[in-house]
Amino acid sequence: MKLKVAFSSFIPLIAAAGLLWYNANKPLVANMVNPDADNAGLKLPAGFGALRAAENVGKARHLAVTAGGDIYVKLNRPKEGKGIVYLQDANDDGKMDDTKMFGNYGGTGMYIKNGYLYASSDTEVFRYKLNENGQVTNPEAPEKIVTGLIERRQHESKSIVVDNNDNLYVNIGAYSNSCQEKDRTPGSMGRKGCPILDSAGGIWQFKASKANQTYKDGVRYATGLRNVVGLDWNQQNNQLFVMQHGRDQLHDLFPALYTVQQSAIYPAECMYALKKGDNAGWPYIYFNQDLNKKIVAPEYGGDGKKEGSKEYINPAAAYPGHMAPNGLLFYTGNMFPEKYKNGAFIAFHGSWNRAPEPQAGFFVVFQPFKDGKPSGKYEVFADGFSGSPEKTASGRADHKPCGLAQGPDGSLYVSDDVKGTIYRIVYNK
Amino acid sequence: MAQKSPAKKAGTAKPKATGAAPIAEDGKTVYAQNCLSCHQADGGGVPNMNPPLIKTDYVLGDKDRLIKIVLNGFNERVEIEGEMYNNVMPALNHLTDKQIAAVLTYVRNNFGNKASAVTPVEVKKARGK
Question: Are A17 and A138 in the same domain?
């Protein structure tokens, strides 16, 4: 495979420093990687190919790729006591052949910005200084940036992203499905003025380079978000975009109001473009993608039709229910065809809450964007992670896509938290 | 911008009036209505979320402890067969003694499990404590 794009057109300035080092050590025509003969088991649009860059790394959640093409992966649970995997490719064939591990905590967040690797446990955010080769200099002594975040088992992961102004955004998921008096208990009504929202159910903003911050140092940047796993900073709009996991169990909890079939596809999984102070309405409303409306939650007096308050923001885009968007990435690379530039890739981890109806998801979709707004219908970009249509329907997927990252050459990386496969998707027209 | 679900279902379709249906007392139906959405049709659960009901210590072991999981729910930071699960199991004490006995007997004799039946008397005793 030849890289189509000339180096001159591929110079986001931040990458330039990394490339200097990169070029010093490696051949100038970089990224001659070959897709696997079976495209790593994935079904992709024409012209794309995929390889398994690594396998069996552990429960791989989010990942980040350095300017030199090395990969850092956050594991949900430490493996042999270590929660971050560092992968290197000695001979540039795309197959990562050296594995090192550090960090004694599990978690989800993994992000590189301004020469630092940021990583989150389910209660804290750390950062590690990277040297000019993109290697962590202080694996056993990271700076603790944020500490003391709430973790009450449910929606525990703390996804992270850093903007261009030294701000760190952290998702703090609600430790509840719909803020019922009794969580997930049939017929139980919603708690008035849901108290969970004080310290969870939203995105908090902290300083990206200040140590030992706690809630009191942070700002509740946006609220009414049940749980966000996939999030990214949109460089075109200079704006935070997040993917919310919508509430579960409409039929189980309110069988007189929702059929099993309705419960399987509603509510929508929503993409939100956030501004400071926004309220997306959880737990009071949910979004119905077919009615194209905010609907009052049954716990708060809804009947499946009654419209929710205008004070809550509308989603930027809405997708079928329960597919679990765990990764969001705005594509800024030059390897893929022009239509992908500045559009969004979304990794849908796959549903469980559709049972007994067939499960859905387990794929990466592409959402076209125009002028910083979703434009047109999403398309399935990478499918086949589950292994077969039967495995998709039963939810017994071989692999589940979770994190997304872009490589310095514009490759798209996808992590899998079932078997720990790291996929690399390339374009080779 | 909303995007239609692939399965075409009108958002306002009238649900069946399930409230009036007779109370099911066979284990399989009680499982389908109260457990399946979390523990799944095959009893295999959902990784990191809902534990499997296949040959676990809780399912095959002490019946009193098992009955109390259904009566009181379960929300503890514990490993189940070496894995952690982060969802919450609600108390399902609105189910009758007969229903709980039936569903637990069903669970203990399906999904590859083989263990003695749970009786309504045992459930009544556990509920009284």
Answer: no
Return the domain boundaries, chain B: 27-128
Find out whether A117 and A131 touch, Cβ atoms under 8 Å. no
A187-191 long-range contacts (CB < 8 A, ≥24 apart) are A187/A253, A187/A254, A188/A253, A188/A299, A189/A299, A189/A300, A190/A283, A190/A284, A190/A297, A190/A299, A190/A300
Here the tokens at position B26 are: 């066979």
ipTM of the prediction greater than 0.95, yes or no: no
**Token pair in block for residue A395:** 């939810």
Kindly report the number of other CB atoms within 10 A of residue A336's CB atom.
26
Q: Which of A91, A30, A8 is nearest to A411 (CA)?
A: A30
User: Three-state SS across A17-79?
Assistant: HHHHHHHHHCCCCCCCCCCCCCHHHCECCCCEEEEEEECCCCCEEEEEECCCCCEEEEEEEEE
Which chain A residues touch B7 with a CB distance below 8 Å? 261, 264-265, 320
Nearest by CB: A318 against B2, B87, B90: B2
Whether omega before A35 lies within 30 degrees of 0, making that bond cis, reads: no
Mean pLDDT by 10 residues, chain B (129 residues): 44 42 85 97 96 98 98 95 95 97 98 98 94
The total number of structural domains that make up chain A = 2
Question: Rounded to two decimals, what is the model's pTM?
Answer: 0.91
Inter-chain Cβ pairs, chain A and chain B, closer than 8 A: 114
Nearest to B3 among A249, A256, A289 (CB): A289
Number of residues written out for chain B: 129
CB A335 within 8 A of CB A402: no
- Locate A248 and state its tokens: 């579960």
Name the fold adopted by B27-128: Cytochrome Bc1 Complex; Chain D, domain 2 (1.10.760)
3-state secondary structure of B116: coil
CA-nearest of A126, A364, A381 to A243 is A364
Residue A271 lies in domain: 31-427
